[in-house]
Amino acid sequence: ITVAHLGEAQSIIDSYRLKSLSSQVFEGDALTCLITGEGPFEAATATANELGKKTYKKVINLGIAGTLDPRYPVGSIHP
């Protein structure tokens, strides 16, 4: 699972009792959580770096995003 900020990852880290391998990588038996930093360049760079270290079956990106477009109401979820 990739997220931009530690605050977004904290519940995942706590729920799965992930161990800190570094300030960016938290790992457990079932999953790894990667803190990428904010922005597409940072996310792509950190994710590519981690994907090069071992084999993963899936990558799930979670996070909080915003828009001023009225077609997307507050609280809605978009894949």
**Roughly what fraction of the amino acids lie in strands?**
5-15%
In helices, the fraction of residues equals: 25-40%
Beginning-to-end CA distance, first to last residue = 15 Å
Specify the oligomeric state.
single chain
Order of helices and strands: EHEEEH
Shape descriptor reads globular
Q: In total, how many beta strands?
A: 4
Mean pLDDT: 89
Low-confidence stretches: none
Biggest sheet: strand arrangement: 1-4-3-2
Rg, alpha carbons: 14 Å
Largest sheet: 4 strands, mixed
Number of helices: 2
User: Structural class of the secondary elements?
Assistant: alpha+beta
SSE layout and pairing:
Elements: E1 2-3, H1 6-15, E2 19-20, E3 25-27, E4 32-35, H2 40-51
Parallel strand pairs: 1-4
Antiparallel strand pairs: 2-3, 3-4
Quick take:
The protein is α+β, with helices and mostly antiparallel strands and 79 residues long.
Describe the structure.
The mean pLDDT is 89. The chain is built from two helices and four strands. The protein is 28% helix and 14% strand. The longest helix is centred in the middle third of the chain and has 12 residues, at 40-51. It has a four-stranded mixed beta sheet with strand order 1-4-3-2, sandwiched between helices.
